Amino acid sequence: MKNFPNHLSVAFITLIALTGCAGGDPGATASNTGTTDTGAKPAAVVNGITIPNKFVEVIVAEQRAQGAPEDPEMEENIRKELVRRTLLEQDAVKAGIDKRPDTLVRQNLARQNALIRDYVQDWTKNNTPTDDELKQEYEKITTSLGEQKEYHTRHILLKTEQEAKTAISKLNKGAKFTELARKSLDPGSKGSGGDLGWANPSMFVPPFSEAMTQLSKGKYTATPVKTDYGYHVILLEDTRNIQPPPFDEIKPELQQRMQQMKWQAYLDELEKNADVK
Q1: Cβ neighbours of residue 209 closer than 8 Å, sequence gap 6 or more
Q2: Which residues of 185-203 are buried (b: 16+ CB within 10 A; e: fewer)?
C-alpha cells in the first residue's frame, strides 16, 4: 500500500478537532457530534464508534480542490487513516486528554479556523468584483496617472568622481556613450551600452532621478551624479507619458486587488459596528 500522503494531515487534524473530543462526554467521538450519514453506510465502525462516510467525502473533496491527482486508492487510504486516528482519539479520551485546558483551547482555535476559512471562501464567491467595477477601477488608475512621465535612460557607473569627470570629458570630445559604458560598474546594463530602459523616476534613488528629470532629450549630465553606488554619468534618450497596460492584461491583478479592497472594507465595517471592550 502506498504511504499515506503527508499533505492530508492538516485536513485530518482540522476534521478531528471539529468532530472529535469536544470536551463534554468522554465518549463523544465521530458518532455523536452531529455529523452523521443517516441511512448511509459508514466508513468504518471502530470499537462501536461510527465513522461517517461523509468524513471521507469531505477530505477527498479538499484534496481534489488542492489539485491532488485522481487515485483509486485515495478513499481507502483515507478510511484507514481515519480508523487509526479514531483509535488514537479513543485512547486520548481514556487518558483524559480531552479535559485538559490547553487541549480544549487548541480545539476551539481549530474550530474557529475552519469556520473562518469556509466563510471567507463563501464570502469571496459572493463578492467577486464585476467587470463594470474592474473597468471603473482601471479608469480611476489611468486617470490618476495624468501627465506623469517615464524616462528612457542610459548610465555609466564609475568608482571615483575623477573617473566620471574623465568620461564626461571624452563625451564632450565626441566619444560614444555606448562605448564608454563598457567600463561601467553596473553589470546589468554595461553589456547593452548602459541602457536602463523605460522607468518611472520613483524607481531610482533620489540623486539619480533628480538629475535625470532635469535633462533634455539626448543630453547627458555635465557633472558626475553621486549615489551610494558610486558616480554616474546619465544620458536621457527620451521621455513619454506613462503608458498603462491594456485592461485585459492587468485584469487578473486588478481583480485580486479589488477583492482585497472589498474584504478590507468588510472587515473595517465589522470592527466599526462591533462592541469590543
Answers
A1: 201, 202, 203
A2: ebeebbeebbbbeeeebee
Q: Which three cell numbers stand for residue 60?
A: 477527498
**Backbone torsion region of residue 46, taken as left when φ is above 0, otherwise alpha when ψ lies between -120 and 50, otherwise beta:** beta
Looking up cell 539626448, which residue turns up? 218
d(CA 151, CA 212): 8
DSSP 172-188: HTT--HHHHGGG-S-TT
- Rounded Cα–Cα distance for residues 94 and 128 (Å): 47
Residue 247, H or E segment: helix 247-273
| pLDDT exceeds cutoff 70 at 189 | yes
CA distance linking residue 229 with residue 202, whole number of Å: 17
Query: Which residues make beta-bridge pairs with 186?
Result: none
Q: Taking a C-beta distance cutoff of 8 angstroms, is the pair 229, 246 a contact? A: no
**Residues 6+ positions from 205 with CB-CB distance below 8 Å:** 227, 228, 229
Spatial distance between the Cα atoms of 167 and 183, rounded to a whole number of angstroms = 10
pLDDT of residue 29: 43
Phi, psi of 10 (to 5 degrees): -60, -45
Closest CA to 155 of 127, 128, 192: 192
- 3 state SS of 38: coil
Q: Average pLDDT of 172-179?
A: 97
Instruction: Report the alpha-carbon distance of residue 155 to residue 225 in Å, rounded.
Output: 10
CA–chain centroid gap for 190, Å, is 34
The answer to whether residue 277 scores a pLDDT higher than 50 is yes
- pLDDT tens digit sequence for 129-166: 999 999 999 999 888 887 789 999 999 999 999 999 99
Per-residue pLDDT at 9: 46
